[in-house]
């Protein structure tokens, strides 16, 4: 079997992203995997399976414009390369669907879309526009099937949009418990980052738009704390780190904040192990959030927001769940 995968950002960490395991699983089962993606940390030398071919395409930091550039770049590279073969096409999230439909028309192979996130209609005007665009893209007849990580987005949107459950496969998210477990030591990371502080809060998520908004909420809450000198916050890095740094300066929190380097996905457990507290202030309706499963597997104290399926994944007895502010 040959698979063509379309995913906007890969890798988000030096040796892979949070879909690294999915790509690895593709490569274990397929003769060849061709991945179209647009994001590689500068200078990264990540490992990849021998049968994985990555076609780097253009993107932009400007919302919506980057989606247009991304899709046209895939079409351009497909025409340029000319010899891409596939038995199935997988697009992860809505932004690559136009390119996926183009590939389906040229390769004459089925298109399966993995539903990662859907913008909420009750939020900003921008989110309402994106929700309508997602509805338009997800309801294309050219899509042969869907993969959802839970029933949440199906019941909340896809079903109401007229998509039959027969076209949807539900595959719950999971993590590697050999990597994420309470036996992992975080001593090295604490020594590197904590300095004179006594407590370390870790937000080990890649800094793209949704996570940056969550990180800003954490910063604003932290700014209200009366005794900050004993605490340090460690954030993940990513394309919107510069925007988060501006907010850090505005709140005058520079001395309390640090950022992780781009590291292999296999190194993330060390950072979670170093934490005294893991805070996940979701500002969007998450499903079976991988970051939450990771924190739970490390048996760390967790504070999270009551968004999406978070209360179902972890209850009030296992974590502190907070009702988020209206954004």
TrEMBL record:
<protein>
    <recommendedName>
        <fullName>Glycosyltransferase subfamily 4-like N-terminal domain-containing protein</fullName>
    </recommendedName>
</protein>
<dbReference type="InterPro" id="IPR028098">
    <property type="entry name" value="Glyco_trans_4-like_N"/>
</dbReference>
<dbReference type="InterPro" id="IPR050194">
    <property type="entry name" value="Glycosyltransferase_grp1"/>
</dbReference>
<dbReference type="GO" id="GO:0016757">
    <property type="term" value="F:glycosyltransferase activity"/>
</dbReference>
<dbReference type="Pfam" id="PF13439">
    <property type="entry name" value="Glyco_transf_4"/>
</dbReference>
<feature type="domain" description="Glycosyltransferase subfamily 4-like N-terminal">
    <location>
        <begin position="18"/>
        <end position="178"/>
    </location>
</feature>
<dbReference type="Pfam" id="PF13692">
    <property type="entry name" value="Glyco_trans_1_4"/>
</dbReference>
């Amino acid at each position: 079997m040959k698979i063509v995968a379309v995913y906007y950002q890969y890798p988000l960490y030096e040796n892979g992203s949070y879909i690294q395991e999915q790509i690895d699983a593709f490569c274990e089962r397929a003769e060849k995997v061709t991945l179209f993606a647009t994001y590689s940390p500068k200078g990264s030398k990540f490992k990849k399976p021998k049968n994985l071919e990555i076609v780097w395409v253009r993107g932009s930091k400007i919302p919506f414009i980057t989606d247009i550039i991304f899709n046209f770049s895939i079409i351009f590279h497909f025409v340029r390369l000319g010899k891409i073969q596939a038995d199935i096409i997988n697009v992860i999230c809505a932004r690559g669907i136009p390119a996926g439909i183009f590939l389906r028309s040229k390769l004459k192979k089925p298109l399966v879309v993995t539903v990662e996130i859907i913008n909420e209609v009750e939020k900003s005007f921008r989110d309402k526009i994106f929700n309508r665009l997602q509805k338009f893209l997800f309801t294309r007849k050219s899509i042969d099937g869907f993969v959802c990580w839970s029933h949440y987005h199906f019941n909340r949107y896809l079903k109401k949009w007229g998509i039959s459950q027969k076209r949807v496969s539900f595959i719950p998210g999971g993590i590697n418990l050999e990597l994420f477990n309470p036996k992992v030591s975080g001593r090295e990371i604490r020594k590197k980052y904590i300095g004179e502080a006594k407590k370390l809060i870790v937000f080990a998520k890649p800094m793209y738009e949704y996570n940056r908004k969550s990180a800003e909420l954490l910063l604003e809450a932290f700014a209200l704390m009366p005794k900050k000198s004993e605490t340090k916050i460690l954030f993940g890095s990513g394309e919107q780190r510069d925007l988060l740094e501006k907010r850090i300066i505005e709140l005058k929190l520079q001395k309390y904040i640090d950022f992780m380097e781009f590291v292999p996905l296999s190194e993330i457990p060390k950072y979670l192990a170093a934490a005294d507290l893991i805070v996940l202030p979701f500002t969007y309706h998450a499903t079976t959030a991988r970051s939450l499963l990771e924190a739970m597997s490390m048996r760390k104290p967790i504070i999270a927001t009551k968004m999406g399926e978070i209360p179902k994944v972890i209850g009030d007895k296992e974590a502190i769940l907070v009702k988020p502010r209206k954004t």
